[in-house]
Design brief:
By secondary structure, the protein is α/β, with parallel strands linked by helices. The chain has a single domain, classed as Rossmann fold. Helix content is 43%, strand content 23%. The protein is built from 8 helices and 7 strands. The chain has helices at residues 8-19, 21-24, 29-42, 56-68, 79-91, 105-110, 130-137, 156-168, and strands at residues 46-50, 71-76, 98-102, 118-123, 141-150, 172-177, 183-188. The chain has a 7-stranded mixed β-sheet with strand order 3-2-1-4-5-7-6, with helices on both faces. Helix 5 links the parallel strand 2 and strand 3 (98-102).
Length: 191
C-alpha cells in the first residue's frame, strides 16, 4: 500500500482529506495511487493540474514528483481552497515542488508561456470545460505525454463533447479506465 510508505503526517492528512472527499470533489485513493505509480514508473517530471481543491490529488502528484525530480503547476479559482491546499502541501513536504496559480483555469492555460511543456496533465474541474482545457493544454503537452481527466463515467453527459473530440483526434489514443469516477487516459502520439 503506497500510503504506508509516506511519513505519518502525510498519511494522517490524506486520511483526513478522504473523509471530506465528496465536499471537495477529490479523486478516489485508487485513482491517486494509479497516477502516483504511473508518474514514478514513467519518470514524469512536468505536470499541470486543473483543479487544486484542498490539495488531495496535488499531495499525491507532489510525492510522485519528489521521486522523479519534477514539478507541478496546479490551478485553482477559489481562495479558501488555495489556503487549505497550501497548508496541506506545506505539512506534507511537497510545497517545494508545487506552484499554485490562482484564477480562471481556461485563462491561465491560455496565457501559459509558449515554451512551457509538460509531460502529464490532470484535469478535475468544471466538467463542461474539459474540451476547452484539452485544447488549451494540447500545445504544451509533449509528444508521448499523457492527459488524464477524472469523472468521465460519473459525469458522462457533461464530458461527452470532450470524449467525442479526443476519441476522434488522430494525435491521441484515449482509453477510459474503470476507476471509481472513470478516468479518461490519453497518450499524445504526435505533436
Amino acid at each position: 500500500m503506497i500510503l504506508e510508505t509516506f511519513d505519518n503526517t502525510t498519511q494522517e492528512i490524506l486520511l483526513e482529506l478522504e473523509k471530506t472527499q465528496h465536499d471537495f470533489w477529490n479523486i478516489s485513493r485508487v485513482t491517486a495511487e494509479f497516477m502516483y505509480n504511473f508518474i514514478v514508473d514513467s519518470g514524469i517530471k512536468s505536470v499541470i493540474e486543473v483543479g487544486t481543491s484542498n490539495g488531495y490529488s496535488g499531495i499525491w502528484l507532489g510525492k510522485a514528483l519528489k521521486k522523479t525530480g519534477g514539478k507541478l503547476i496546479t490551478i485553482e479559482f477559489y481562495d479558501k481552497r488555495i489556503v487549505l491546499a497550501k497548508d496541506n502541501f506545506e505539512k506534507c513536504g511537497v510545497s517545494d515542488v508545487i506552484e499554485i496559480k490562482q484564477g480562471d483555469a481556461a485563462t491561465i492555460l491560455e496565457h501559459l508561456p509558449e515554451d512551457y511543456k509538460c509531460d502529464f496533465a490532470f484535469v478535475d474541474a468544471n466538467k463542461r470545460q474539459y474540451i476547452d482545457f484539452f485544447h488549451l493544454i494540447d500545445p504544451h503537452l509533449v509528444e508521448g505525454g499523457f492527459i488524464a481527466c477524472d469523472n468521465v463515467i460519473s459525469h458522462a453527459a457533461k464530458v461527452q463533447t470532450f470524449l467525442d473530440d479526443i476519441d476522434k483526434n488522430s494525435n491521441y489514443e484515449n482509453v477510459v479506465l474503470p476507476l471509481p469516477a472513470g478516468l479518461s487516459f490519453a497518450k499524445k502520439l504526435r505533436g
